[in-house]
Amino acid sequence: MISVESGMASESTHVIAGRVAGSLHASGHSALRKVKVSATARTITLQGNVPSYYLKQLAQTVAKRVDGVATVVNDTVVLPSSTNKLTA
Q: Where are the domains of the chain?
């Protein structure tokens, strides 16, 4: 899921957010496909639940490597798999 804040949105912001989302999808980790990507200027915000701190860090690392990203705000929440099953 990609969203771009209005006002500061430009075509390049949409492109950067799309690249980040695409990189998360291409990571090979299904949990990262569910991470919401928001963009304001060159700042990317990641939101959603991931099952481990490793995947939280991986999402941030993947986003930082995308051309055009200046800052990553990682608001993902770690919910281990057993917790996800209880709340699903």
A: 2-87
Q: Which amino acid is at 6?
A: S
Look up the pTM and report it: 0.81
Domain 2-87 belongs in CATH node 3.30.1340: yes
Q: List pLDDT tens digits, range 22-34.
A: 999 999 999 999 9
Taking Cα atoms as reference points, which of 32, 47, 35, 44 lies closest to residue 71?
44
Over residues 37-74, the pLDDT tens digits come to 999 989 999 999 999 999 999 999 999 999 999 999 99
Q: Which helix (H) or strand (E) holds 22?
A: helix 11-25
